[in-house]
Specification:
alpha/beta, 18 helices, about 40% helix, globular
Length: about 500
């Protein structure tokens, strides 16, 4: 069996004897690598003025890890700069927050070329390569330049906006357009997939008759929706165990019989936390009979604290929380607990199991696994209610059981929250059962398997009219072209 080479921005190598953290990308990579030999390559998370020209290699269980350090300039330009201050906001539909600097783009390209050089040295002819997320969009292009013809797939964990927004990215052809060098590009939702297809059409791509692929510049790139999943049964077991721990029991006792409304989000403008607080405040103002009967706990670990937008958001949320507690609280009741602390996944699983309502209301999200973890953690005989944003990727799978809301509509969210708090047991059970059935059908193992099976499918031959130019020449698109007409010669 061919090896699988997984590439991502960050690789958290577990310490010897430590169990690998069961969350996010780590779960996905473990699912992909557990039945085949392979290597997980990426950044170590360390800053080093003199990084080695060779990766640090280690083996844990069946997985071989290969990591490299970054220089401070690389980290600031590639990661803090272009990836998180340009790509992140634009891909989350927040063009107004993007701050483009040429030096940051240069750093992004430089680090991707450096990663390609490292991967090229370990790549064997029959290896399959799976690259993850917006940090590594052009990596396949640089591997192709080095002559590698391996099957290379890419999965975007965050949203893909329509081409009209993508075109606001300076030199977008070099970054977004470079995704055409992959054999398969996967997205969280059909909407994300279709947005990218429309983008390829603006670049001269032509869809195949079944719409699953595009021929562009001598290459055929297939696109698909592969909604990322969780380890459903394992997480349910984790929640059952966590619910019996002293720590989670203590949290439950602190609620003194009040219903728990829970939000768990990294501090980020895409999560819609201010909108959520506005909705909760509206409920407090319009339903005084619910006072003393509910407590909203918002767990929000801080992130990217050096970015001004995040610092300002933290100040606003902290001020809003204090204002709400001062106005509506009492010596015997705190309406809102706002916590800036990171909890273990086991603790969070226990919190989810305790919750009567989960508020998962991002303004825009790739998937949002909190929604799925909350569902998996519930007691089937007495489950909580999921209030879910229509703009979360998870909405496509969980809309049959969640209460769907528009996070921009304050009164609508407040009404949904009240309905969730008052929902009868029979309806809660029915809604939870529908969502749980979805999670069991599409767990993390089936997600990884479906992507890799699609990647390994034998490609169809591209039509001859697309073979007149070299793919590497055609897919460079120039460095400043932003038009929507078809490039000459394609």
């Amino acid at each position: 069996m061919s090896r699988l080479i997984v590439v991502s921005n960050r690789v958290a190598v577990p310490q010897q004897g430590e169990k690998t953290a069961a969350g996010g990308l780590t779960v996905a990579v473990n699912a992909a690598l557990k039945d085949r030999s392979g290597i997980w390559f990426g950044w170590s998370g360390r800053i080093n003025d003199n990084p080695s020209d060779r990766p640090t290699v280690s083996t844990r269980g069946k997985i071989k890890y290969a990591v490299v350090d970054l220089k401070d300039d690389d980290y600031q330009e590639y990661y803090n700069g272009f990836a998180n201050r340009v790509l992140w906001p634009i891909l989350h539909y927040r063009v107004d927050l993007a701050e483009f600097q040429r030096a940051d783009l240069s750093g992004y390209i430089r680090v991707n070329r450096n990663f390609a050089e490292h991967v090229s040295k370990i790549l064997q002819e029959d290896d399959v390569v799976w690259i993850h997320d917006y940090h590594m969009m052009p990596l396949a292009k640089y591997l192709r330049e080095r002559g590698h013809k391996n099957r290379i797939g890419f999965f975007l964990h965050i949203p893909m906006p329509p081409p009209e927004l993508l075109a606001t990215l300076p030199r977008h052809g070099e970054i977004i357009g470079s995704l055409a060098h992959y054999d398969l590009v996967g997205f969280q939702t059909e909407n994300d997939r279709d947005n990218f297809g429309r983008y390829l059409e603006t670049r001269g791509g032509q869809a195949t008759s079944d719409g699953t692929a595009y021929d562009i510049a001598g290459r055929r790139v297939r696109i698909g929706a592969f909604p990322v999943a969780i380890e459903t049964e394992a997480f349910a077991r984790r929640a059952r165990h966590a619910g019996r721990t002293a720590y989670v029991k203590s949290f439950g006792e602190s609620l003194t019989g009040k219903k728990l409304i829970l939000g768990v989000d990294r501090l980020d403008y895409s999560k819609g936390i201010p909108n959520r607080l506005e909705a909760y405040e509206h409920l407090l103002r319009t339903a005084p009979e619910l006072h003393q009967k509910m407590t909203f706990v918002q767990i929000t670990p801080k992130s990217r604290t050096e970015v001004p937008e995040y610092m300002e958001m933290d100040r606003f949320i902290s001020h809003k929380a204090g204002q709400m507690n001062g106005l509506y609280g009492d010596v015997s009741w705190t309406p809102l607990r706002y916590v800036n602390k990171t909890y273990s996944r086991s603790a969070l699983a226990g919190f989810y199991r305790l919750a009567d309502v989960a508020l998962v209301t991002p303004l825009r999200d790739g998937m949002n696994l909190v929604a799925k973890e909350f569902v998996a953690a519930q007691k089937p005989d007495d489950p909580g209610v999921l209030v879910l944003s229509q703009f979360a990727g998870a909405a496509a799978e969980l809309s049959g059981g969640a209460l769907m809301v528009n996070p921009h509509e304050t009164e609508g969210m407040a009404l949904a929250l009240r309905r969730a708090l008052e929902m009868p047991l029979d309806e809660r059970r029915e809604r939870h059962a529908r969502m749980m059935a979805v999670l069991k059908r599409n767990d993390i193992d089936s997600w990884a398997q479906s992507f890799l099976e699609a990647l390994n499918e034998k490609p169809r031959v591209s039509p001859s009219q697309f073979m007149s130019r070299s793919p590497l020449q055609s897919l460079s698109f120039g460095t400043g072209w932003h038009g929507v007409h078809r490039p000459q010669g394609l």
